[in-house]
Every structure is written in C-alpha cells, then in structure tokens.
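Lab notebook: predicted structure, single chain.

Context: the supervisor wants predicted structures on file for every construct in the current expression panel, including those that have not yet been purified. This is the next one on the list. No modifications to the sequence; it matches the entry in the shared construct table.
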Amino acid sequence: MRPHSVFPGVVRLRISQLTKYTPPHMKLSSLEVMHRRFYIQNVVRKVHNVVEPSFNNVPQLSYEDILPSEEQFQAAFKQKFMKVPLETQKEIIKLTFDKIVMSQDPETRKNSEERVFELAGSNLQEIKSLGDLVLKTSKGGALVSLALYKIAMENGDDNAGFNYANMLIQGFKGIPKNTDEGESILTNLARKGHPYAQINLASILINSKRDYESARQLYELAAQGGQAAAWTELGKMYRMGTGIQQNHKKALECFEKGAAGGNRESIFMLGVYASTVYPTLDNKPDQELAFKHFEAAAQKGLPEAQYNVGERYVKGKGVEKNISRAAEYWKMAAFQGFQLAQANLGRMYHEGHGVKQDLNLAKEYYVQAIQRGGAIGEKAISQLREIEKGEKTNDAKKPRRCTIM
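Prediction complete. Output recorded below exactly as produced.
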C-alpha cells in the first residue's frame, strides 16, 4: 500500500501481536519455502508496495565495479558465510545487476529473481550472505545488495527483511529513501517477534516522539527475548523520564540486567550510578566500584568509558593516580573520535605532562579536536596557535600542569 503514513495518528502494538522470534533455519524444506513465500506475498505485499531497485541515474556503473575481489570471495567461503561455488556467486551478482537492478521490465525482474533463488539452491541464508558481502566490499553495490535482500525477504528470510527495511529508512549509500515502506516492514517483523526490529522500531517511535508507550513495550519484548541492548534503552527511558515517569530504581534494575548480558553501555551506566548520589536510591558513592565499571566498559571499547578511566587515572579518583595510564586510555578514545580525549592528549603532548613532550603529536591531536568543532574545538584552536607562535619565535614551552578540559 501507499498510505499517507505507516503510523496514522498513534499506533499501539498489542502485546499479543508481538510474539517470541525464532530465527529462520539455514535450510528450509520445500513446504516451508512455499509457506513463507505465500505469507510474505499475501501479507507483506498487502501492507506495502516493495521498492524495485533501479540504477536509473548511474548508467556509468558496471558489473565489474560492484564485484568483490577473488580474495574477498575466498575469505567469505573459508569462513563458511557462503557454500555455493564461486562462479555461481558471480553469476548471481551479474544476474542481479543486469536483469534486476538495471532492468526496467517487471517481468524480466520477476523471472530473474526466481532464477537467483534457484541458483542459490533455494538457500535464503546464501542469498542474504551474498548481499552482505557485496554491501561490505563494494562502494557502488548497495542496490545489488538491496535486490538480494528483497529476494530473500520475499521468500521468508526475516533477517534479510530487517536489512532491507533499514536500508530504505536510512537511504543507505544512495538507496532511494522510503521511510514509510521501511517502517512498515519493521512493524511487521516486530509483530512477528523479531528482536532487532523491535529495538529499531522503538527507537524510531521515540526519536519521532510518536508513541512512547509502544516503544517501552517493544524494548521490554526485545529484552525478554535476550537482547541486552534493549535493557539499556529501557533503562535510559526510566533514567531520563522519556515519555514515562522518571524512576532511577527501575533504570538501575534495567542497567543491571543489561550489564549481566554484557552490554557495555549498561556497564558504563552502573559506573555512573555508583559514582553519584541519587536521593531516590538512598545510595552512597563508591568511586572504586565506579572505576571498575568504567574500566570494564572501556575494555569493551566504549569511548566514553575509556575517557572516564583516563580522567580518573589523572585525578586518582577510585584508583591510584597514573598519568601514563591515563594517556593510554585517552588514546583509545581519541582513536574513536572522542573529542575531549583528543584535546586533552594535545595538551599533554604540548606540555609534556605524563608523556614526553612532542609538539608534532600535540598538533595532530589538536587538529583532530578542531575538526569536530564546538567549544572544545575553539579551545584547541587557541592551543594550536600557541604552538605555532612558539615555533616561529623558537620559544620552547616549558612543561606545566595539564589542564583537563
């Protein structure tokens, strides 16, 4: 359908409509394939009109431009992402490009989609994995991946449908953006119990300020389905009072469950709660415990946690003071684009505080911070000018205390 909105007014997704999700099997029987194809064609296509991928505006793109390299094909085969022979994979990509993406004839596209399904041995996972490979390795192959996801989706692969929907919602890599269709597919998947669709749909409902209650229900269902990230998002809702009554006790409970599932953001938030007094929790700050939580989240790669660990090493808060260790953690955060870490590393190398003075490194970190703009970027500009002024006058800066921005 082409409705004026996927969510006319406020849509409430009933709990009974959102069932536990069971991922599709790697291999499907003929009966299962027929059943899934019937379901998708008679339910999903009645809900929305599927976009037909087309390269109308990029005639200069060729099959060779989107073809993964031999090494990439071999790597995917060795990792068991795909099992069909290499030449068959290439044939599928060429057929998808020539007869589905580039074709303007609906009948040609339909017949070619059926042929792709046959070449893949009716293996939906194979088709999806080939779409993943093209998307990952090719700069111009997004529409080919979209077409492959569509074939797998229409034959019953919910994970391919999830990828397809998100590409449409984001307008990923030049894909014609179609938010209505993408959200419609996510809604259908969420009702079937797909946890990632539930999480993404909940995020859309919150960001668009459309339906906080449905978002809360979706997060709860995904969390109960084993998604630790859903506990984190639910905790954020209770912490900030986003569309619901603020409740730090419930927020903390959610973060504890998310942390138990290994979610790094939940682990980080346990550090936040351990370091701060919350009257409604009747708690006392425990800086050593807070440091342990921040360190655990940092080791999982969370840049905010890496910055906090570095700051605590600088201040000796919850851990013994160690400037060189602080620099190590700030380098991790800076590598991921965390601006405050970039600016502080610039200052450390500028002044030789805890590290050997290195004006070239200082300039590199200042430039990184400047590129991210804002007040921190403005401060970094003034520090960079200070170095350049000193270089012109041959006035070497004496080490002095590093100021945490």
